[in-house]
Amino acid sequence: MLTLQDCIGICELTEEEIKAIAQHEHVPEIIAAELGEYLVHAENGVPHIRKIILEDIEEARSRGHEADVERLELVLKHFIATHPDRPAALEAANA
After folding, report:
1. What pLDDT band is residue 94 in, cutting at 50, 70 and 90?
2. pTM for this structure?
3. Which string of DSSP letters, residue by residue, matches 18-66?
């Protein structure tokens, strides 16, 4: 049986990125890991994950949860730095 940590280990997202997806989609983290892994490889998935994190930031800001805003801004910064806008397969196909 796979644990959440096993799924995080094979996923191309960090635990914090997975938590952001789980929070946004109102699903358990293990489901968010599966969804996130799918989205990372989908044609418009990376921008969709970025939008999820941005919406989480706005939600936290509207509730006055500044610590969550700061944490999610770091999550977003890391996500942008580690994931291109388009999957590598599309980049190679257009090269």
Report:
1. very low
2. 0.83
3. HHHHHHHHT--HHHHHHHHHHHHHSTTHHHHHHHHHHHHHHHHHHTT-H
